[in-house]
Amino acid sequence: MRTSTAARAGQYAALLAYLVFLAFPFLWLISIAFKPPRELASLHPTWIPENPTLDNFRQAFDEQPLLQAGLNSLLAALGAAVIAVLIATPTAYVMARRRGRLAKAATGWVVVSQAFPFVLLIIPLFLVLKNLGLINSVPGLVMVYVVWSLPFALWMLAGYVRAVPRELEEAAAVDGAGRLRTLVSVTAPLLAPGIVATALFAFITAWNEFFFALVLLKTPEKQTLPVILTHFIGAEGVADLGPLAAAAFLATLPSLVVFALIQRRITGGMLAGAVKS
């Protein structure tokens, strides 16, 4: 009994340490965002600002086009999430349900493609977008994000499709439903947690992505938030710490809000009770 209690206490302690490890950067970012310059330069920094101020936020909006950059990031992230889900859902269904060498080869390619580095993809993608006239445009960036997030989206959704009992699809087939009708009316509703999780992955990946946006977007009015944040760092590598922290805090909020709103759909057991044993 004592061993079980000690083990459980150790687990809770490890979980608490992990949560503190994850929360520390974000809490410190909030603290810096509300500190005046005098406190930022202090040799004895404190967690809670002694004289909290909103000047860093005002300065950040005055120095850089944060609203336009936020809109660009939102359009790119939403576009990538929606398109990736629309493509991945039927494709993952075929990959999970069809048996044969082609399906196995497609699954293997999806897994292997995750090992490709950014640098390997950026040159061919840049040339394709240049020929299409989509360099320095948000639609071009959406295309790149879809290409980058689609393999993992396929891998995620294929796992969710395999978890859907085949008996439901067989029952629909007996009632005369075709493959498309079965996917739309039977399988897709049961895939809601997987679709939401995949969309969330694609959204957050696109929202936080920096490298592709840096290479493809040239003018400030087309750039996304991660790229705009680098403008708070001077030519000599000296960061304007207060406005940078304020802008970074604002850039972090949307992904946190999106995750908080739909996390129940991810963890919900929508397959529970679908088939009686």
Automatic annotation (TrEMBL):
ABC transmembrane type-1 domain: residues covered: 70-262
Please give, as recorded in its UniProt entry, the membrane topology of this protein: Multi-pass membrane protein
Q: Which residues cross the membrane?
A: 12-34, 74-96, 108-129, 141-161, 182-207, 244-262
Among its keywords, does the record have Nucleus? no
- Location of this chain's protein in the cell: Cell membrane
Pfam family name, one: BPD_transp_1
Q: Which PANTHER family match?
A: INNER MEMBRANE ABC TRANSPORTER PERMEASE PROTEIN YCJP, MALTOSE TRANSPORT SYSTEM PERMEASE-RELATED
What is the protein name for this chain?
Answer: Carbohydrate ABC transporter permease
